Amino acid sequence: MKVYKHVDKNGIIHYSSKKPVGKSYNILNIRCPECSEWRNSVNWKTTPLIDNLFSSEITTAAKKHGIDSSLIKAVIHAESAFKPKAQSSAGAQGLMQLMPLTQKTYQVKNPYDPLQNINGGTAYLKHLKNTYNNIDVYLAAYNSGETAVEKYGKTIPPFPETKEYVRRVKILYNRYQRSAKNTASTTTPRIHINASNQ
Description:
Blueprint: E1 2-7, E2 13-16, E3 26-29, H1 36-41, H2 55-65, H3 69-80, H4 100-105, H5 114-132, H6 135-144, H7 146-151, H8 160-187
Antiparallel strand pairs: 1-2, 1-3
């Protein structure tokens, strides 16, 4: 994403996606997880997984709410690329991109705090999972809202962004599950029994 940066006469720095008129500026190229251009350019089947960030927060939320930690990682990856300060143009904030109403519902006081954000987002995922009991539908609800899902008969709304979101998260979910299984298989201690001592 191309961002224009300029400093006004009072020394205040301004950032804009539009080229400033009649002003000197610098051009910044920023990786933008929210932008469709960036999302569409990513191969979600091969993009590197992020397994080493916020592990304790994810594990805590997973155990508390009964949600697979691999699914939490997939949602975080798809929503913010594990950037705790991420904010969308629609007002969603933090790792799991929580809207203000969702923050209020799940008592998230600081959406940029990883522990609060992940706990709130996972609680919301649990609610949606219990409500729709179908991964395609509850992921669609996470992306487009429950109102949209209800409007279209508790199915995935016909929005290209939502359809792509569900596809993206499911790919990442499958990959994070495989990664977790591979990690478990390499760290599980093996017990050898000497038959001669029996």
